[in-house]
Amino acid sequence: MNHIFISYSHKESDYAHGLAQTLYKDGFDVWIDDRLDYGSQWPNEIQKQLDSCRAFIVIMSPNSFGSEWVQSELQRAKRKKKPIFPLLLGGDGPWLSVESTQFFDVRGGVYPDAKFYSALKRVIRPDPSARTLRMPKAPRKAKLRASSLNLNPGMIAATIGALVFFLLLSVTLLWGLFSKDEVSLPTQMANPTMDVVLLDEPTAVPTPTASPAMPEVEQTVPDEMALIPAGEFTMGMDAFDEFAICEKIGGECRLDWFMDEEPIHTIYLDAFYMDIYEVTNIQYKGCVDSGECDSPEISASTSRLDYYDNPEFDHYPVINVTWYQAQAYCEWSGGRLPTEAEWEKAARGTEASPFPWGDTLDPSYANYNYTVGDTTAVGSYEKGISPYGLYDMAGNVWEWVSSLHGSYPYAANDGREAPSSENGRIMRGGSWGYVGVSISTSYRYTWDSSDSNLDLGFRCARDVSP
After folding, report:
1. Which of 72, 125, 353, 398 has its CA 20 to 30 A from that of 437?
2. pTM of the predicted model over 0.70
């Protein structure tokens, strides 16, 4: 799906449907709860549309603050890591639950300004020719008051200046037509091949200064890869052992979650290299600039509307990439995606530890369980390094591996490492939004190879030359 989900109190139905109409006319697909059916299937439909949306708009007001439906939808959107766009329609300020997310003030019944649409387009692309969802019903007109437009002297002066400029330009052009003299246009206007410059985008990206605490990551330099020596290691985990870990660190524990990691088995791997850090935004951008990689489908992160293209986050892990994009990057950089077995050995070493650093767990070891609520710069957790010196092998972002899903014991020659177009590739390591047991070294999760996510990245491996 490629639609926007609007959550609102039905006491603000007119405004919500007016907003939906506006979005729809701009080419966005919109799903809005019309409450046409109060039957038992309606909650399922709401959940289905929310889970598959690309952006989540919540209309904040005293009425929606007290709405159980709105609060439930908001919490599910956060759990599903949907990009959230809060609109403040009424009240003194944004809700505590979304105060870390940029909100847009629409008090007085105004519709969002151009800044809102610019931010929205970073997450979801409008397409007027692909309106696959139903057109929202027409609302009564939202009340617009001049006092709610938040005009200030600077905006008025800028508007008047723009009008005067275009008026003078029009007179100049008309004079040129009637006088049959050549009109000298500004250089940019006279050049039909000029590059289009979007007003809401920076025209130049400043060269960022690396933080003293941040390593200069260069994936093609051997020093930024760790050697994982040849030898045997233990792969997998007994369900009851992992159940005991889950109970030890807290959280809901169910045995059926972990049966995919059995049986425990010992396998031999040849030596290989592995990236010390997760691939970052600036590294991935190098591949995009070369023409060998596609840009991430979404440039935002969970709480940052401008993430991938923002120099502030150059040394943060790239996200919103599919398995195919991760594979293309690793090949471009001279490597490959690690196999599932290679990833697990690099994470746990030969001691079969449940976490890269051992068997204890607290927020100082890794970015997990919403302790931060979004990605952190690679290499931020010194206490969480693996036995081979790799960072963020637990938490921060999930990491793609090369393997198709297959039952254990692991066998590289059984077809799971085939370069096929089959779906169901494995991702490892958990992320900032998952509980502790999900960031264990043996935990595995299957994901659609052609899909991306706001907490899904990767790192690369490389063969050791003979």
Report:
1. 72
2. no
